[in-house]
Amino acid sequence: MTKIDSKIPEGALAEKWTNYKNHQKLVNPANKRRLDIIVVGTGLAGASAAASLGEMGFKVFNFCIQDSPRRAHSIAAQGGINAAKNYQNDGDSVYRLFYDTIKGGDYRAREANVYRLAEVSNNIIDQCVAQGVPFAREYGGTLANRSFGGAQVSRTFYAKGQTGQQLLLGAYSALSRQVNKGTVKLYTRYEMQNLVIIDGRARGIIARNLVTGKLERFAAHAVVIATGGYGNTYFLSTNAMACNCSAAIECYKKGAYFANPAYVQIHPTCIPVHGDKQSKLTLMSESLRNDGRIWVPKKLEDAKRLQRGEIKGADIPEEDRDYYLERRYPAFGNLVPRDVASRAAKERCDKGYGVNNTGLAVFLDFSEAIGRLGEDVVRQRYGNLFDMYEEITDENPYKTPMMIFPAIHYTMGGIWVDYELQTSIKGLFAIGECNFSDHGANRLGASALMQGLADGYFVLPYTIQNYLADQITVPRFSTDLPEFAAAEKEVSDKIAKLMAIQGKESVDSIHKKLGHVMWEYVGMGRTKEGLTKALSEIKTLKKEFWSNVFIPGKADDMNIELDKALRLSDFLEMGMLIAYDALQREESCGGHFREEHQTEEGEAKRDDANFSYVACWSYQGEDKAPELLKEELNYEFVKVQTRNYKS
Amino acid sequence: MDKNISFTLKIWRQRGPKEQGAFETYHMEDIPGDTSFLEMLDILNEQLVEKGEEPVVFDHDCREGICGMCSLYINGHPHGPATGATTCQIYMRRFSDGDTITVEPWRSAGFPVIRDLMVDRSAYDKIMQAGGYVSVNTGAPQDANAILISKDIADEAMDAASCIGCGACVAACKNGSAMLFVSAKVSQLALLPQGKAEAARRAKAMLSKMDELGFGNCTNTRACEAECPKNVSISNIARLNREFIKAKLAD
Question: φ, ψ for residue A447 (rounded to 5)?
């Protein structure tokens, strides 16, 4: 069996990263100018990496599918970014951030990676402030913090409800500076379609120009993918419309392992689904759980009346409300991690206590906070979120409690990478949400921004040099090489095949069916039976797609239906991969909940004896089941425990 | 509950930048009020695809008002009838049964049409590349709390920084001026101590790039401020002018 080498450096936990940096190979300035790097994606990870690598002197080619790097979906992150600054003097430390992240991830992440993440978290805040990111401040001029789920300290830095936007604009400005200097060349409205491998190393990509429809070839000494997560496999999610997993799946098909695809995060505070024409779900920031209290009625008859629209939430007296998170988890209350909060909402709704017409919603109530702080303070803290809620639902959340329900939000799984963020293909690196590395089975709030920027600013710029140092004598590649022609032909054949089908179903209608199967059987509660059914239904959908999809227009032209079809072909592969992984993982941990494996109280039951590993999936060919390889997780520094948010 | 409505759409269709465009008329039946404007266009596109026709091309992505990708002139207003909202945040309950809704792309010399309702806003990236940053490399800057910034200044910088780069200000302006966009970035960085060192250089570089790319000048009509989906204030333009004059006097 293939051995999985995670390349964790020797030494004590706190010294590993320093040791690594002290002994890694570097590339001298003259050689940097001779080395090219492709970075696909311009979100927090991609933009920060492209900018930093450009500053260092490499020649960078940076690609994004939108019209500008500033549109990447990192922009939509609301709540904040964690760092172990301990500015609040509440007992925080690098170790505690590390520990909370490991615990929050349900002991399914690598200790060394997570410790490094916590270690560089403080540099990120310093870097972003230096760039002019307008973080919230106290009257004395120091930085402000708020608390987030899964932590008992206040370590989250924020910029109104727009932290992702401000951090991304910071990275985008650093990137723009490098474009101006000529170290980074930008390709906007380009989508990666294939990876080019020469002699076992990643040496380029095939990208489709989304304006002309033409395929173009790009060569480099190393390729970095920073293309985000695969949440849109579920059709409805909080991801942006264009978010997709094609770059990752194409790399997987070329030999990169896909790790832990079953770990999908379902965010507890989203606006409930309201109709079958809906295109996406809107997240209400987790920060709302700082002051909002989550409840459903205690009495089933009250819930029924709410569902029929006979009464409103405000009509139910205090003593008849069940603040179920505070009841079940006294120590963390409304601030339990996302997976726990989501499952608790599902449990209540499954029992019939849902509060809207579909029975799939719970209340998030601010009346206590408004009483305690006054409406003005609540408006200051959450005004933009409340306005957004009112525009979408036509309800005023200052007067009636918000209604929320869990939705697909983030994917912890991703392309497998070693400690250097290198995939199982030499010269191919994966950063940000696109890799699997730091969040284990569940990500804590405000940690995605931290990981994206850690990878891009402070980790990859070091580790990629260790690889490139051996490449300094390798000249630039011609895109006329047969490997490029072959990779391009794979894509053009696929496109020709898609265009030739001329069937009867639109891309979206098939994607919606896929989403339904995923949410029903591969969503919050999974069973062996359901997952087996999902696998067979996705196979049927795949056949339906490849025999009956209809794409109007031409291939070598702007064609938005073809864009979507290419993405859906990869979502179908992704859906199967998630189901395979969920099926083999006979335990419940983090975002992965197998109904067969729960305690009597309905809490997740982990099985460390048999499942303390990273599941790495290796592609075996069209319509063949992928092969499972295991990277064992060894906890040397932290005692593995059952997560407890009760006391 | 929201009512369903039926209405007529007049949508601008144009194959390419150099080709002639025209309005096409489509009738929409029974659209629920809780459908977003872009979801309504999705429904139209599904219907067009079912008929074997090419869908209407429009820019969109996050659909929660922050990426700045969506554009659209709806009934003569950038981002439609609501104030402080992007096109993707408009819901059909704002329209009435029997309405005729006119949908056009941004119309401005700085933003040529690519197809239908999609325009080329790369000029904004070029203006940013000219100077919309603090020149600091990734590395080890001083501790974040070593720079004290009063809450008022931080909040003011944040308000300026909330620009999403959508281009509504240019589309709304009769001069096709990008002053609100430029001033938002110049203000954010000029207000903060980190950005002061190169404030003069930045104001000059960004403005000269704006002129070079064919955007018009500001005549204080305030149309940009009225249509900005993020309520970026025109007082930023005053600050930009001060920064620019200061820079010129120092030359």
Answer: -105, -15
My answer on whether B184 and B158 are in the same domain is: yes
Single residue among A471, A498, A516 that ends a domain in this structure: A471
Judging contacts by C-beta atoms under 8 Å, the chain B residues touching residue A142 are: 145, 148
- Kindly state whether residues B224 and B179 are assigned to the same domain: yes
Structure confidence at residue B1 (pLDDT) = 55
Per-residue pLDDT of B62-92, as tens digits, reads 999 999 999 999 999 999 999 899 999 999 9
Query: Which residue range(s) make up the domain with B127?
Result: 122-250
ipTM of the complex: 0.98
Same domain as B145, residue B108: no
Report pLDDT for A351.
95
CA-based nearest residue in chain A for residue B94: A391
Q: Is A33 a catalytic residue?
A: no
**Regarding beta strands B113-115 and B118-119, do their DSSP bridges make them parallel or antiparallel, or are they unpaired?**
antiparallel
Residues of chain A with pLDDT below 70 are: 1
**Amino acid (1-letter code) at residue B128:** M
The answer on A308 and A200 residing in a single domain is no
Contacts of B13 in chain A (CB under 8 A): none
| Residue whose token pair is 């806003």 | B121
Domain shared by A453 and A498, yes or no: no
Collect all residues of chain A within an 8 Å Cβ-Cβ radius of residue B114: 211, 558
Contact residues, B window 76-135, toward A, CB-based 8 Å cutoff: 82, 84-85, 89, 91, 93, 114-115, 120-122, 124-125, 128-135
CA distance A146 to A134: 15
Torsion angle defined by CA atoms of residues A539, A540, A545 and A546, in that order, rounded to the nearest 10 degrees: 70
Asked if A279 lies within 8 A of B140 by C-beta distance, the reply is: no
